[in-house]
Amino acid sequence: MAKEKDGKKKSDKTAPLKTAKEKREDKATKRKDKESESRNTAT
């Protein structure tokens, strides 16, 4: 039982490199970067 829990904890930590929330935030920041870039080139 203890070994199972330990193994699960380790896999949980290593399996997802980024959480869903972090992925969403990355997308938002990338979109903002693109918007600011296009604005800079337009002006």
Explain what the structure shows.
- It is a single chain.
- The protein has 43 residues and is mainly alpha-helical.
- It has a domain at 15-43.
- The chain is 84% helix and 0% strand.
- It has two helices and no strands.
- The protein starts with a helix and ends with a helix.
Helices, strands, pairings?
Elements: H1 2-14, H2 20-42
Helical percent range? over 70%
Helix count from the secondary structure assignment:
2
N- and C-termini, Cα separation: 63 Å
Query: Secondary-structure element sequence?
Result: HH
The stretches of 5 or more residues where confidence is low (pLDDT under 50) are none
Roughly what fraction of the amino acids lie in strands?
under 5%
Gyration radius, rounded? 19 Å
Judged by helices, strands and strand pairing, the structural class is mainly alpha
Indicate the overall shape.
rod-shaped
Taking the sheet with the most strands, its summary is:
none
Q: Give the number of DSSP strands.
A: 0
Calculate the mean pLDDT score and round it: 76
